[in-house]
Amino acid sequence: MSRSSRAASKRPWQDIAKEAQDHRDSTINQLSPPLPPVHSNLPSNITGIPRILLDSGTISITQLPPEELLQSLLSGRLSAVEVTTAYLRRSGLAQKLVNCITELLPDRALSRAKELDEYFQTHGKPIGPLHGLPISVKEHIGISGLRYTTGYVSFWGKIAQEDAHILQVLSRAGAIFHCRTTIPQTMMHLETDSNLYGITVNPYNSAVTSGGSSGGEGALIALRGSCLGIGSDVGGSIRSPAANCGVYGLKPTAFRIPTDGWGYMMAGADCVDSVLGPLSTSIEGLKIFVKTIIDAKPWLSEPALTPMPWRDIDVGGENGGRKLKIGVMWHDNVVLPHPPITRALQTVTSKLKENGVEVVDWEPYLHDEAWAIISSLYFTDGGASDSESINSSGEPWRPLSTWIMKENSCVKELSIGELNYWLEERESYRKEYAKVWNSTGSGFDENGDLIDVVDAILCPVGPGVAPKHNTAKYWFYTSQWNLLDYPAVSFPVMRVDKEVDVKPKRFKPMSGLDEENWNLYDPETFHGLPISLQLVCRRFEDEKVLGILEYMTELTGLPFESFDS
Hints:
It is an enzyme of class 3 (hydrolase). It comes from Zopfia rhizophila CBS 207.26. Belongs to the amidase family. Its EC number is 3.5.1.4. The protein is α+β, with helices and mostly antiparallel strands. The protein has 2 domains: about 5-300, Alpha-Beta Complex (Amidase signature (AS) enzymes), CATH 3.90.1300; about 325-555, Amidase signature (AS) domain (Amidase signature (AS) enzymes, Alpha-Beta Complex), CATH 3.90.1300. It is built from 21 helices and 17 strands. The protein has helices at about 5-10, 15-30, 50-55, 55-60, 65-75, 80-100, 105-125, 165-170, 215-220, 240-245, 285-295, 315-320, 340-355, 365-380, 385-390, 400-405, 415-440, 475-485, 510-520, 525, 540-555; strands at about 100-105, 135-140, 175-180, 195, 200, 200, 205-210, 230-235, 250, 275-280, 325-330, 360, 445, 450, 455-460, 490-495, 530-535. The strands form 4 sheets. The protein has an 11-stranded mixed β-sheet with strand order 1-3-2-8-10-9-16-17-15-11-12, with helices on both faces. Strand 11, helix 13 (about 340-355) and strand 12 (about 360) form a beta-alpha-beta unit. Helix 4 crosses helix 6 and helix 14 (about 365-380) crosses helix 18. It is globular and about 60 Å long.
């Protein structure tokens, strides 16, 4: 911990939290003209409020998907200042509605936008492929001269000395960073709540969570305060908020996207690879983000990265003219998903079959053992470092911090021998799962390539839609793919309908965890919430998983209901 961090931790934690929130509010108050006032008695669903309170120009700009917005910026139809101003205003309003940002960056963003506009006027061309595109940034990703706390009060004095590598790459491509988004205490929640900033709520219903740990990003993008943002994922932290908030989110394969310069407790020594990745209002936004970064060859300055160029994937050509083959995982043999999730799986599966896609059932392989492995590797010091970071400031433990570290029987301080054991278990499980995937094919051709193997797995993102606050305790549907290091993308499908997604009168749970999960199902509360699913491919098939989702979307008309805020 830095000297400034130790000094900050001696102050009452409440004083630091107030300073954090006052600073955030002051950055929003810099907007001119001021934002319209927001009524204190808000409805539970606030997704329609921005259209009421903001001017038509701001709405028209911020409703554009990133690919269309970029075309307007790259052609000069819209200026960087116009676009940045619109997103600053909409993200500032989003904060007042759902508590999703830690600070607005109006001075930096507008100064950068003016530079870009001047360059365009002088040279008659954009500075790069992301010229003028506003991108929101999860708070623990370092921005030079700004704090990054990783959700701890004791880290309030921690200042980034330079921009994180990913921001350097995106900035050279012309991106503008207009705001920073909320994260939870410890960063290890599928909820976004901290003592610094409080709880980030779901735009569709304030009684449920926006997800975590990138929940600020999920909520902000759902409200169109950003069309493209940066999250991180070690157990579901991109896919959970994307799914809960009805947007798109990609967990890439580890070591394809730069991570130098972020705040993460076990950075450099973690046994489960955490990744940075995008959340967006469109599939194309995810693709633009990843391709731009990989095309910049970031491995030349961050040697840990895999030197793998971007590959354009033609789903038809990739499959040699044969049918696309999708494996559907209806459940993980531990917890049965709630009715809305099963209905979404059935609907997508039916649409795929109608359009000539081969669909087979996917038999999950020991997903409960996968959780035992990954949760044993999350806190190899028994949670000592995280506990010290919480306790040193005197801040209280948030409920899900207590659950993941103090109530999780797998969290133990590991000896060298025990650590080696769990690392060997991780590698053995990865080999076993590869065998399971290979077995879905019909053999090998003369070149040794698998024939007729499953191309991707369609599965739940979680055991239900966005859960009520402090109840997101089942990670298996996302952490599974972190353990295997498979790329996975979450995408919106439809909405909960309480008249259709009824709770069955008779239910026989598969496990104690299943019974706990079914006790959480409340169709009345969940009515109208986004239902999302997840598509998974094998390691380093990031381009393929996006290509298949894009193909599925064109084929079936996904999503089947509007998610336009």
